[in-house]
Each structure stands twice: as structure tokens, then as C-alpha cells.
Amino acid sequence: MDKVTVEICCGTACYLLGAARLMELEANLPEELKGKVEFEAKACLGMCNDDRLGGAPYVRVNGSEVIANATPDAVLARIRTLLEMEDL
Ligand code: FES
User: Fold this and answer.
1) I need a surface site. Which of 31, 39, 58, 74 has the fewest CB within 10 A?
2) Whole-angstrom Cα distance, residue 9 to residue 16?
3) Is residue 33 in some structural domain?
4) What is the CATH number of the domain that holds 26?
5) Does any domain span residue 86?
């Protein structure tokens, strides 16, 4: 894995429920993670209409893994875990 990719949904539902805070992650990334994560703002990822997925805001990591009710702390924790797994 080159970098962890983090797609942040900035569609209306996700934006209203906290995507703006998630977008600040890139600027506030801890020093040890800089250069290892690629952020991308996305239009609606199409998950906000499906209650089974957990709730907005949604973040998609590495193209497939979905974090529902995403918070900056939850996204950072997932990034750290993925990078540590890569080091094993
Ligand atoms: S607005 Fe985020 S999944 Fe639709």
C-alpha cells in the first residue's frame, strides 16, 4: 500500500452531520502520518439513503472500507491501524 486513501463524503447529508470537521483532518494531520495519507473530498457516496450502513457522515478508506458516523478520531485510529498492519 503506497498511501492510505481517505475519501470524505461532502454531500449534503454528510456535510450537515460533520464532514467539515473531517475535512480539517488533512491540515491537522499528526506529524508521523504526514505523507502517508491521501485525502479526497467526494460528492455523495450514495450511502446516506441506506440506514443499514450506520449513518452519515461517511468516509471510505482505501476504496472499499466504509466508516459510518465518522469522526476525526475514528478516521485517525483507522489510518493508524492500517499503517501498523502494513509494517508487520
Ligand atoms: S451525502 Fe454522504 S453518502 Fe450521501
Assistant:
1) 31
2) 11
3) yes
4) 3.40.30.10
5) no
Angstrom distance (rounded) from CA 16 to CA 82: 28
Per-residue pLDDT tens over the stretch 20-63: 999 999 999 999 999 999 999 999 999 998 888 899 999 999 99
Which atom of ligand 1 is nearest the CA belonging to 47? 3
| Ligand 1 probe mutation, 16, 44, 52, 53, most atoms within 8 A of CB | 44
Number of domains making up the chain: 1
